[in-house]
Design a protein that fits this description.
heterodimer, A: alpha+beta, two-stranded antiparallel sheet, two-stranded antiparallel ribbon, 2 helices, globular, B: alpha+beta, four-stranded antiparallel β-sheet, 11 strands
């Protein structure tokens, strides 16, 4: 894992209205996302910055509800 | 842990939980038979049988064409007039091959998304695209073909013709537009938004492995096929299951016609019971374990979706019954395992099947997508189709994918 592939260049969002709580994101990127039963959706974790960016993209691609978006440092959507 | 020696090099998983675990095992690859998918096969070098970093790089590019905003435009703006046009024509004729009709409806959008140019008013264009998709479906399923050598021979000719008729002209037009954009002659908004244009914009990236024009055409063509064939098969299977259930549940018919939420549930229930790919395969690139089953390096792993989707521990004792209203456990999809999962989940799942419904249907927001197949289904069911008494409803028996149809003729009782 090198510094350039870290989350610091990117931002992740979970659309709580769209999330259907399969937990796939948590399984793929456990330091980036976790299910939050209290809110009825997945959420972005404070440790997301330690998550390899490949894992974040995999989680976004694998989300069955397409509820995860990854943005670059300028706010452009990448997923 | 129990060791399982692969018998005839295959380990079969047939329960829901094991298949779910297998989806997320990074050592189980879809790059399992290079020879089968080599030159002359539409899947040679396409994203769905890649693994690891190249797969990830390609999906980053190709997935951008499946963003919610684009899907909303497909479902709300582009698709309704296409459905209206072709369903009205079929109803006026009084009869239709539902598989062909579903294919025409689906290919009109799939070609647009993949990046193959056609003229909507030129019905021969769509007919030709549908014929190519039918051939591609046989080529893609070569691993399950009853006569793979015949498929291989057919593939070479079909791919050559497709390349000439649609592939190269579409590719050249995009290259010209991209060049004009690079020279500042046209605006970004004038560029096509499709898979082929996206791949061409990034083809200099060696990580994508797009070394020649034909590779770009094949990479886009797989989306033409994926976006058409499965949708049309699912449409036919849904109508077939609804007709089977008509006596038992006459209320289903009206509910489909008037309630998009229920129509979408019918599509998902059909995908569960009749996955268009009933069994998927993976190869263990390294020794790994799925649950308590050890898998040696090189073993072939079969994921039996058809059985897993009927797992009574997940879907209940009546898992074999078509029941769109069934209660589903939290975290389980109504479509079961049929779209795959993990990094290889079907990228077009939301186009065809819409977004998963929240557990409480009332939570559906304005942004919900019902999926194109549910929209097709509603348009067709409103005209009361029945099985054609003189023309066939025939399964496609050219592969071991037993849920597929070759033709499915219906008559429309309501021609208005």
């Amino acid at each position: 894992m090198n510094g350039s592939s870290r989350m610091s260049r990117y931002r992740a969002e979970v659309d709580a209205h769209r999330c259907v709580e399969t937990g796939d994101c948590e399984r793929i990127a456990p330091t980036g996302f976790a299910l939050d039963p209290a809110h009825g959706s997945a959420r972005v974790l404070p440790t997301v910055g330690d998550t390899p960016v490949d894992e974040l993209f995999d989680a976004a691609n694998a989300c069955p509800a397409q509820a995860i978006r990854i943005f670059d440092g300028r706010g452009n959507p990448l997923s | 842990m129990r060791m399982v020696e692969p018998i005839t090099d295959e380990i079969v998983f047939a329960d829901y939980d094991s298949i779910q675990r297998a989806f997320f095992d990074r050592h189980l690859s879809r790059t399992f038979d290079k020879r089968t998918y080599d030159e002359g096969n539409i899947r040679d070098g396409v994203v769905s049988i890649m693994h690891g970093s190249r797969h990830r790089s390609r999906r980053r590019i190709e997935n951008t064409q499946f963003r919610i905003e684009d899907l909303r435009s497909y479902e709300h703006v582009l698709f309704p007039p296409i459905v209206e046009r072709f369903v009205t024509a079929a109803v006026t004729d009084g009869e239709a091959d539902l598989f062909r009709l579903g294919s025409v409806l689906a290919v009109a959008l799939a070609a647009k998304r993949a990046g193959f140019d056609y003229v909507l008013e030129e019905s021969r264009d769509l007919d030709d695209l549908v014929s190519y998709v039918e051939a591609f479906a046989q080529i893609s399923a070569i691993v399950d073909a009853r006569d793979p050598d015949a498929v291989r021979e057919m593939a070479k000719e079909v791919l050559r013709n497709f390349k000439e008729q649609f592939g190269v002209p579409s590719l050249r037009r995009r290259q010209r537009l991209l060049e004009a954009h690079a020279n500042g002659e046209i605006d970004e908004r004038e560029l096509p938004r499709d898979i082929m244009a996206s791949l061409l914009r990034h083809r200099d990236d060696p990580e994508l492995g797009l070394t020649d024009d034909f590779g770009v055409i094949r990479a886009a063509a797989i989306y033409l096929q994926g976006g058409t064939h499965t949708s049309a098969q699912t449409l036919v299977n849904t109508v077939d299951l609804l007709l089977d259930a008509k006596e038992r549940r006459p209320d289903y018919w009206d509910r489909v016609a008037t309630d998009a939420t229920f129509a979408q549930r019918c599509i998902h229930e059909t995908l569960r019971l009749r996955p268009t790919t009933p069994r998927a395969k993976r190869r263990a690139e390294k020794a790994t374990a799925v649950g308590d089953v050890m898998i040696p390096e090189g073993a072939m792993v079969v994921l039996d979706f058809h059985a897993g989707n009927r797992d009574v521990n997940v879907f209940g004792a009546d898992a074999d019954i078509f029941d769109p209203d069934r209660e589903i456990p939290a975290g389980v999809h109504r479509w079961g395992l049929s779209f795959g999962g993990g990094s290889h989940i079907c990228p077009g799942r939301a186009v065809a099947g819409g977004l998963p419904q929240p557990s409480v249907a009332a939570q559906l927001g304005d942004g919900h997508l019902f999926g194109l197949v549910a929209k097709m289904l509603q348009a067709i069911v409103r005209h009361n189709p029945e099985r054609h008494p003189q023309k066939p409803q025939a399964r496609d028996d050219r592969t071991e994918r037993f849920t597929r149809w070759d033709e499915y003729w219906v008559i429309f009782e309501d021609r208005t």
